[in-house]
Write a structure and sequence with these properties.
Chain lengths: ~160, ~170
Amino acid sequence: MGVEQKLANMGAVTTTLETVVNWSRTRAMWPLLFGLACCAIEMMAAEGAHYDMSRFGMELMRPSPRQSDLMIVAGRVSRKMAPVLRRLYDQMPEPKWVIAMGDCASCGGVFNNYAVVAGVDEIVPVDIYIAGCPPRPEALIHGIMTLYDKVNHNKIKDQA
Amino acid sequence: MKPELEPTIQALTKTFNSQVNEFRGDVRVTILAESIVAAAQMLRDEFDFSLLSTMTAVDFWPEENPRFEVIYLFTSVSKILNLSVLVQVPGINPSLPTITGIFKNAVWREREVWDMFGIKFEGHPDLRRILMPADWEGHPLRKDYPLGYEEPQFTFNFEEIDLRKPYAKE
């Protein structure tokens, strides 16, 4: 029995285009496979079987920025890495989001010196900051759920 | 000091008129800048120190002469011995002869010392920065290098700093 036979019994749902677009964006938000320091280990743990981020439709870490929607900056960004990070961000197709994972990416963390950028928001626009050093996988998942919440409240007229 | 190390130390002292320091079994030999090439050659060929384990420097700013101390750590793999060789370098136009002709890995090691401390190595085949971006100004591990201090945001000054923070554009 195919879905077309069932369709007749399912009735119709009315909704707004905005809701459908936002819903579909959150359900397949693929992050960029990109780790910089110890936060990346927690990111891997969040991806792994125990915490299993794929429950939220984001199991697919894309190794190419051209295929990804979300950049998780996991770790401290050195001044030499900063132009590379910006370039990766520029290569991602719209719409795109950035999560600054951990204290170092958010504000420089324990580093305050010549080598480390004090907050990745000086290089790319950040949507969500996750505190922790490093944040536990639950914190990362919570951060992503918060981002979903933000995306769900997107207005199409704001993006035009 | 390990007894196996003694002939090496004696030869270095005799040939290069070097000073010997010992601290908890680690031996440091201070020699003059002009004899580092000959000393490295001798250590490699005659005493089987086949490996330049590491190379670094210390900045004793505000002292000017000598301001820097460049440290070569030689290792003898066959005899299981370590030997540090120290060379003192003045603060004005600091430079040393290169030992890349004797130890190939000194190419990167000397680039690192150049990048971090600004000590020139005369005769180095490719003296570029190795860690910092190519357009970087200054040498960050010098003691007179500014710390690059960025004011941390607390509750009481959050908004004030937030206003002048260089946020990125879309």
